[in-house]
Input
Amino acid sequence: WKVCVGTLPFIRPYVKETHPRYAQENAKNLSPSSRPSLARLNKKYDRIARALTAAILCLEDRSQYAWAIRSIDDWIEWSGRRPRKEAVASACRVLAKRFRGQEVLNLVSKVMSIPLVGDFEEKTPEYTYEKAIYTEAINALHKSGLYEEADQLYAEGATNGHLPWSVMRNSDSNRLYLDLHGMSAAVAHAGVRVALQKEIATAPNDAEVLGRDVMIVTGLGRRSGERFRPVLRPEVQRMLTEEFFPPIGTSSVPGNMGALLIPKSDIEAWLEHQRKQRGERLMLVADVLKDISTGNRLERALLNSEKRIERALKFKLKTEGCENT
Output
């Protein structure tokens, strides 16, 4: 990994040559026919960009997350372009392994803020650069148990149209439909959590909690590694029973093995528990603010400090008296 870190600066001039702005400035004195085209710059950059991918993969193998982020930052400055998605995915994995979820969010945000130069990256329209980055980042966060950060990325990606929104348009007031077709297990996990969290935000605040039946479409597993061995179905069932409290039960839909049904009663129980937790958190915050505003907390802290000093002095006098005798 030290060789990678030391070698990247040597290719900096070649990377900067592919920067559209620098290339335009350097070509001012050239004739129009001699100026490099954008397609030519893109092709040259595509070849050089493999060096960054190789370096980041090496840094991931050695868990050098700080150097991985530094290398990507430098590369963006030199090239003015988005790094290859393989390099960004590798950096997300090494950050997630070190439980640096916020830095994963920052990296994805930084990469997405860079405008796309040319169309050479869009080789597979159904799996765009943006979808690949969000999916790989969510997979990395999910694998390390950073579910809140994964949920945040999913909500952001779905809002911007880069990830499919799990809630189907034909959802009605009596039933909520969640479609997880084509999602990885991690993205589906985040999709279910975000959709149910949205239920909390939109649920009424009165005493009666109004829930809805939830139908989750997981598919039959035609695209899984083992044909017709569904992956999402058992993963969603495990998540609902092990990671939600109270546990949410599911049942099969008659005549449709690619769907799960969550009864309204389980959704209501879960929403009620979430609401109580939210109320308890607000009460705790109110008590803390009350102590601070009335000065009770400061008074107790000073009183405890005086008692500790008094005990320390008594102990010191006692030990000195024993030594004199």
